[in-house]
């Protein structure tokens, strides 16, 4: 009874259902992506009826809506996992689902990627066009008889974010390329912590001359679900296999055949971990082919280490599965890694899909966030310096606190104060402007003729020094060398105008002083 209670792998049942009902579930295959009727930038059809993207779907606000394209078969309706959910508070999610065979696209540098979905409706082929904002890829880009790399390049050309990333999915197109990353992990962790199976790679049939230790498993090219895998028991069969490789014109790998008890499937979706044991009950040495017994097992630290290290490949994997086998010798062997197109197993498939939907929601919230205006706060001194260096003194903001002025001696007329920002910011705080307010009226100095140096620019040893005034030795030496205070130095195009303003204020000041004497 315990044996009967265990469930079979749903992935195998789905495969059988697809074979039996292929004429019902599979849509008619459209033209290749390089066909002349690929989606145009103007969205004009060439003899093909086009239907609005939102036909027979809930109404969406186009201004506050993001489109999610799910590439998967039609056994799973992904729209129900996003129904009623929103991002950014009130943005709707519009879900479009199709297989690679039903898609066509064109990408542009200015407008991004436009996608066409070709479907049959009431016996008529129609095309629905839209611009996706995010991707969820649950289908293999490359398989035994299919290669959709040209579509993947189009998505990358348009810069569309995805789960997993398009960069990682592109690197998963060849299993030996992925296996090379596993070799690096084994060198990092050690053979005991990461027990990777021994494997040999042959780019073509010409190198398949040295016979390995038999029995071996020969994997021909890149395929899934047990396709292209052959068990070889002697060197005669191995030579025959080399002839098949010559005809197929593809690479091949060989690895030692492990007499296994069961397969181990370790999956990671975001931060959620699960482990399964799968054992064939049909007598096939490949447990993922035919009928198999599936059971969820406890997740341990060893499995977690494997999947965590593999999740760091190719910039990071959000969804992945590590495949291993348990040999009768008591040892475990890691054989491969699958990306976001991995098969979901067991009774928790519905939970796994909801976890994937939650992961997609989080990624969309992060990647598609509207760009908000960034407010920068500058100090008044930084603004004055920037405006002075760019010759834009009239646009300077008024200082929040005017500089403190010492009290005027009794009997001395008030010094006229310039309006606005007639003086440059450097002159408003320069030492020589402070010395004007502290000059004693009993020691007058006669105003000089235009063109002569101002007496305030010369150092008077008898004049008392203001204790609040700070003098930089470098600046005083530089003042005496050229007669121009450091505060009055500016760009070459502004020095003449600043000197004229200074002379005008000096004349006005001395006129007020000597006018009442």
Structural descriptors:
517 residues, alpha+beta, 18 strands, elongated
Query: Approximately what portion of the residues adopt beta-strand conformation?
Result: 15-25%
Which radius of gyration do the C-alpha atoms yield?
Answer: 39 Å
- In terms of structural class, how would the helical and strand content be classed? alpha+beta
- Low-pLDDT ranges: 1-38, 42-55, 373-400, 420-464, 467-471, 473-488
Largest sheet: 5 strands, mixed
Q: Write down the overall geometry.
A: elongated
In short:
With 517 residues, the chain is of the alpha+beta class. The chain is built from 14 helices and 18 strands.
Report on this model:
The protein is α+β, with helices and mostly antiparallel strands and 517 residues long. The chain has helices at residues 2-5, 10-20, 22-25, 149-157, 166-171, 175-189, 235-248, 301-310, 349-367, 380-389, 425-428, 431-437, 473-482, 495-514, and strands at 50-51, 65-71, 86-87, 91-98, 103-108, 112-121, 124-130, 134-137, 162-163, 199-202, 216-220, 229-232, 252-256, 260-269, 272-280, 292-297, 319-327, 332-338. Strands 3-4-2-8-9 form a 5-stranded mixed β-sheet, covered by helices on one side. The N and C termini lie far apart (122 Å).
Topology at a glance:
Blueprint: H1 2-5, H2 10-20, H3 22-25, E1 50-51, E2 65-71, E3 86-87, E4 91-98, E5 103-108, E6 112-121, E7 124-130, E8 134-137, H4 149-157, E9 162-163, H5 166-171, H6 175-189, E10 199-202, E11 216-220, E12 229-232, H7 235-248, E13 252-256, E14 260-269, E15 272-280, E16 292-297, H8 301-310, E17 319-327, E18 332-338, H9 349-367, H10 380-389, H11 425-428, H12 431-437, H13 473-482, H14 495-514
Parallel strand pairs: 1-7, 2-4, 2-8, 8-9
Antiparallel strand pairs: 3-4, 5-6, 6-7, 10-13, 11-12, 11-13, 14-15, 14-17, 15-16, 17-18
